Amino acid sequence: MPQNASSSQTSSTKVVMYTTPWCGYCRILKRHLTTAKIAFEEVDIERHPEFAIRIEEVTGGNRTVPTLKIGDSYLVNPSLEEVQNQIHTTP
């Protein structure tokens, strides 16, 4: 099932990152999040296709990764800055 990829975080907001193993953008964003000490749970949508359905819903029918769920919001292929801004504005 999903795994934790980072253990230290400056906010209590839950971050879930939907990825695939072959996605270069996913690897880059994971590295940025880890360096910024933002904890996230990683879900490989190829291993857990039940999550891919939700990704298709929020991306207009595509399985675009990385897609992050932060609180109740979704960010599609976000930058580190967009993730940080969303964490700080999510209750």
CATH topology-level fold name: Glutaredoxin
- Please report the first level of CATH classification, the CATH class: Alpha Beta
Low-confidence stretches: 6-10
Shape: globular
In CATH, the architecture is 3-Layer(aba) Sandwich
**Total strand count, please?**
5
- Helix and strand string, N-terminal first? EEHEHEEH
Strand content: 15-25%
Largest beta sheet: strand ordering: 1-3-2-4-5
The biggest sheet amounts to: 5 strands, mixed
Helix content: 25-40%
What is the straight-line distance between the termini? Answer: 26 Å
Structural class: alpha+beta
Rg computed from alpha carbons, rounded to a whole number of angstroms: 12 Å
Number of domains: 1
Describe this structure as you would to a colleague.
The protein has one domain (3-89): 3-Layer(aba) Sandwich (Glutaredoxin), CATH 3.40.30.10. Helices cover 35% and strands 21% of the residues. It has helices spanning 24-35, 49-58, 80-89; strands at residues 3-4, 15-19, 41-44, 67-70, 73-76. A five-stranded mixed beta sheet has the order 1-3-2-4-5, sandwiched between helices.
